[in-house]
Write a structure and sequence with these properties.
Elements lengths: L1 H33 L2 E2 L3 E2 L5 H10 L1 H15 L8 H23 L3 H31 L5 H39 L1
Antiparallel strand pairs: 1-2
Helix pairs in contact: 1-2, 1-3, 2-3, 2-4, 2-6, 3-4, 4-5, 5-6
Function: Probably a riboflavin-binding protein that interacts with the energy-coupling factor (ECF) ABC-transporter complex.
Pfam families: ECF_trnsprt
Main location: membrane
Amino acid sequence: MLQQNTKTNKTRLYAFVGVFSAAAFLLQVIGTLTGLKVGGFLDVEISDLPALIIAFAYGPLAGVLTELIKNLLHCTMTSTGLVGELANFVMTGTLCFVAGMVYKHNKTFQGAVLSLIFATLALAAAGVLANLFIMLPLYMPSAPFSVKMNLVLFTILPFNLVKGVVLSVLTLLLYKKISPILHK
């Protein structure tokens, strides 16, 4: 019986990752189509919300996998030469991983708040490092380092902090409401 239950749980996990990846992709497409951008290239959208919710429900790997699938799907319609999708995966994969890891060890409201604070800070740090040393050199290879540093400090860092806070608030508002469905 235990083996059957484990198989059912894995099937349920895969199904939820698929559904949440599709929802995340649709939110990303809608966000991209609205055209709301910061700095001319940072899309204002909430497509990472399903991945954060699944990271809370099933752990960090489920959240990261949801982000990976969402970004692979988005590669079919990219205009960034895949740099935008790589950046989104690195940053929000970090967000989901940290949130899922911390929440996994303290499944209380306070644990959720702490996990989202740490995750937002990790998102911001990953955004600074990845953009300075990987993304912007790929996207803007001829730009001087000082230009890239200014872009990171005055556009990307504040954007990622605000994005982390908005996603955190939405996760706190929604997760407990839909948690019974996810764990039924």
